[in-house]
Amino acid sequence: xxxxxxxxxxxxxxxxxxxxxxxxxxxxxxxxxxxxxxxxxxxxxxxxxxxxxxxxxxxxxxxxxxxxxxxxxxxxxxxxxxxxxxxxxxxxxxxxxxxxxxxxxxxxxxxxxxxxxxxxxxxxxxxxxxxxxxxxxxxxxxxxxxxxxxxxxxxxxxxxxxxxxxxxxxxxxxxxxxxxxxxxxxxxxxxxxxxxxxxxxxxxxxxxxxxxxxxxxxxxxxxxxxxxxxxxxxxxxxxxxxxxxxxxxxxxxxxxxxxxxxxxxxxxxxxxxxxxxxxxxxxxxxxxxxxxxxxxxxxxxxxxxxxxxxxxxxxxxxxxxxxxxxxxxxxxxxxxxxxxxxxxxxxxxxxxxxxxxxxxxxxxxxxxxxxxxxxxxxxxxxxxxxxxxxxxxxxxxxxxxxxxxxxxxxxxxxxxxxxx
Length: 420
Ligand SMILES: *Cc1c(COP(=O)(O)O)cnc(C)c1O
Known about the structure:
Elements: H1 16-28, H2 35-48, E1 52-56, H3 59-69, E2 76-81, H4 86-94, E3 98-102, H5 113-124, E4 136-140, H6 152-161, E5 165-169, E6 177-178, E7 187-188, E8 196-200, E9 213-217, H7 220-229, H8 238-243, H9 265-276, H10 278-296, E10 302-303, E11 311-312, E12 318-322, H11 331-340, H12 356-362, H13 370-375, E13 379-382, H14 390-406, H15 411-414
Helix pairs in contact: 1-9, 2-9, 3-4, 3-7, 10-14
Bound molecules: pyridoxal-5'-phosphate (PLP).
């Protein structure tokens, strides 16, 4: 198999519909937050089954607005998985509060609620966890890694038992759903799965507006606060000021020192059509994931990602776990060889407690979160996106198979003295 160009890690799936809508926005004369953003919010809220949706310019902004609206302040702590992207924890720092890092489940890579319980109990008892002490735990930020949802009922039970609010980092989880067991109804991510659920429309997420995000909630007061803070804390936004009444509403009041997080109509133009195609794109990723499962099955050197009949997986990521004891090369060399053979991959992620900021500020050490420390060394995310061509799928599969067989640990040779 010859590939003239490398298989990229991601390629956006854009059609003439998105392009025409963007052109229509340019011709309309209204580029910033306006009618298309409002329509995008309504249609997105409907798609996930939430009452309110606030469109913003990133998931990071959505997460920040959520914890601000829930009143997060200095002296407080929030349970955050260590295996996540920078954004999930930095927004806690924006409010002057402290992320209490939690280890991951070795199979799903999602937050381990048993470790969350252990860390929370210690902090509440006044005992330090790494360098974290003297904080009052008030919330939890579950992340649905790769689009495989946390067990929502267990997370809710945990949060309720410990009086914690919940903000979901659902950057990977649109569209995604879970159910407690076969025969039970599905619950969509964003449909009462947290106090606030935050989605990402970054360029390589499951649907994109280039940059963008959405906060959804059923609570009108939380929604109103997030909306106000997304635009400088003003009493009303520019669109309703200019078009809301037969009299020009020229005045406004600054009611809080807000942020500049609003989404533009240019971005919403893309979002409207990406949203309409989101299920179709998810089904395509699911079909590709199934092909990966089928054709990578039985390779001893790798573990495939978890699946469950009680998860509707968004398939944002396809993270392999290398079995390093079966391979004669390490993860870095595996990635380098994939690269040389024309397969671009990624790693999700170096855990937060292995970054200098969290080590230097809060004293986290590898042993504080041992599962994440060990597991991340084995992680490699393969390309998986809806616009992937069959020759690209074939090339990824053939390359992974070839690398595994070429670098298989030579157990047979070791047990054969004649070879020496
Ligand atoms: C991408 C990502 C974010 C941030 O999304 P932006 O829209 O780029 O701000 C947050 N959390 C996770 C888990 C992500 O993967």
